[in-house]
User: Which sequence fits this backbone?
């Protein structure tokens, strides 16, 4: 690859040397690598938020970008290290769901379990696969190693509930992926679910036993200040929002709450 790009998304924070160690491994194998930090401030062990942030950011990187995500509470257990090849790039990390939202968005082509010790560090820590497994795998990928050389192709990986939208009895069932700093409630519904239900003006949602009928807007200011609305946000997820207000606090909605989308 010419000018290869590798991104990093972790819950490591910036106080410790962990991020620098991953970068050191990558650059030692391929000094020409461009390394981009998406974030290292994911809440500790929060796979859902890691998946959301990765899916949000990765879609804007050039074709062929390699994305490493390490939010890995199961490190050192039987959970597998995997490499997902999509139509636009590659995702490397633990098989715990952190890669799935982003990879599904780009169209999964192949999935490999990373097993070839040739492409790992000589000594592998049970507690730091980011440095010893994922970083070298990404670096070798930048140098032209074929994805199939890392290990056997696999068919089934962990698909967490937050990565699935279920269609049943004419409705879609999903959940709250994220609440941002503005209090916008970001669901895992996308525009395709809105179109499938032929929704044009009003969105009907059921959450925590309450029914919300919200105007489907293209801008927050289409409703008056402190009025609720629904909107397809900048990362292409359906959001429950309040213009100049906090929807999460107003409706007492939390991450992980189940949401039903239906046509009234």
Assistant:
């Amino acid at each position: 690859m010419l000018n290869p790009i590798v991104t990093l998304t972790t819950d490591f924070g910036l106080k410790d040397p962990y991020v620098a160690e991953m970068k050191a491994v990558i650059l030692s194998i391929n000094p020409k690598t461009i390394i981009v930090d998406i974030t290292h401030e994911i809440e500790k062990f929060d796979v859902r938020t890691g998946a959301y942030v990765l899916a949000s950011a990765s879609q804007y990187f050039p074709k062929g970008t390699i994305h490493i995500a390490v939010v890995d509470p199961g490190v050192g257990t039987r959970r597998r290290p995997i490499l997902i090849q999509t139509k636009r790039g590659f995702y490397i990390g633990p098989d715990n769901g952190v890669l799935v939202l982003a990879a599904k968005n780009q169209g999964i082509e192949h999935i490999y379990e990373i097993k070839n010790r040739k492409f790992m560090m000589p000594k592998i820590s049970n507690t730091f696969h980011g440095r010893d497994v994922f970083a070298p795998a990404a670096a070798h990928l930048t140098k032209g190693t074929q994805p199939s050389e890392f290990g056997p192709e696999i068919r089934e990986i962990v698909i967490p509930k937050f990565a699935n939208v279920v269609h049943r009895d004419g409705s879609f069932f999903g959940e709250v992926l994220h609440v941002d700093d503005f209090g916008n409630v970001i669901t895992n519904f996308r525009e395709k679910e809105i179109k499938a239900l032929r929704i044009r003006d009003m969105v009907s949602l059921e959450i925590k036993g309450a029914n919300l009928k919200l105007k489907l807007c293209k801008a927050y200011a289409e409703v008056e200040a402190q009025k609720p609305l629904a909107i397809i946000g900048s990362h292409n997820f359906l959001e429950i929002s309040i213009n100049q207000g906090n929807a999460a606090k107003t409706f007492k909605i939390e991450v992980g709450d189940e949401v039903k989308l239906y046509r009234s």
